[in-house]
Design a protein that fits this description.
By secondary structure, the chain is α+β, with helices and mostly antiparallel strands. It folds into 3 domains: 131 residues, no CATH class; 43 residues; 58 residues, Homeodomain-like (Arc Repressor Mutant, subunit A), CATH 1.10.10. Helix 5 packs across helix 7 and helix 6 packs across helix 7. The longest helix is centred in the last third of the chain and has 19 residues.
Length: 250
């Protein structure tokens, strides 16, 4: 999907059809004082939202505005990535119904505009697991960014470089970098370093391994390399975590 924060400037849905392009995307909108009606070019499906409706719309290419107006609100978070990590922590049966070209998730009550406010609200929807959430989340899971995150989660924890991963994924290095930036919402190298540190720290908590074995297991060249990375990303030395994780010190 297109980056959720595509609309950094104030944008209205009248202008959106020009900017929507050929990719699926997530928009956060606030409806005007008249009903907002949308349609999909390849079907007879229609969606109408009442005045002042506010929430998330996940749309495939081909959705167009028929009538009404709505303000496109800034989205300071990457929902596909958030959905991916929610799915890593919550195991539920897959939604088996056909997913329409547009799915919506209404904001009931006041939701702030900050990253933490939107992410907290969306996580709460995941716990409630309503039918609307099931359809909406299924739309996110069908996006290429979600598939790329699955690929990175499987392949990018041994210190591999993007230029080595690109041919495995089947695209050029430059295109792979663009896809990673879109899926991760930032620089791939920095994000993947954080992932690797998080997984290494989790290994320290869950197992009784030495720091050296944890370092080698997660692709660090030495225990000193691993220690430096922990200090850079977390702010403390691994030795400070020995008592917490009950690791044998070296």
């Amino acid at each position: 999907m297109q980056p959720d924060n595509l609309f950094d400037q104030e944008t209205w849905l009248e202008d959106w059809s020009v900017a929507s392009g050929s990719h699926s995307q997530v928009l956060r909108v606030r409806n005007g004082l008249t009903p907002l009606c949308l349609a999909h070019g390849d079907s007879q499906l229609r969606w109408c939202f009442p005045p002042t409706w506010q929430g998330l719309l996940a749309m495939r290419p081909g959705v167009r505005r028929i009538s009404g107006t709505a303000k496109v609100l800034p989205m300071p978070t990457c929902l596909v990535k958030l959905q991916f990590f929610i799915d890593r922590g919550i195991s539920r049966p897959s939604f088996t119904h056909q997913v329409p070209p547009l799915s919506e998730l209404r904001e009931c009550g006041k939701v702030g505009n900050s990253t933490s406010a939107i992410e907290s609200w969306y996580i709460a929807q995941a716990w409630k697991n309503s039918t609307a959430y099931k359809v909406f989340s299924c739309m996110l899971r069908g996006d290429e960014s979600y598939r790329l995150l699955e690929f990175l989660h499987e392949h990018a924890f041994g210190g591999e470089k993007l230029q080595d991963l690109a041919p495995v994924y089947g695209v050029s290095v430059s295109h792979f970098r663009r896809l990673c930036h879109q899926a991760l919402g930032g620089t791939a190298k920095s994000e993947l370093r954080d992932w690797r540190v998080a997984r290494a720290l989790l290994s320290m908590v869950e197992g009784a391994h030495s720091l050296t074995s944890v370092a080698y297991e997660h692709g660090y060249s030495s225990s000193s390399h691993f220690s430096k990375e922990i200090r850079d990303r977390v702010g403390v030395a691994p030795s400070s975590l020995v008592d917490i994780t009950r690791l044998p010190s070296e």
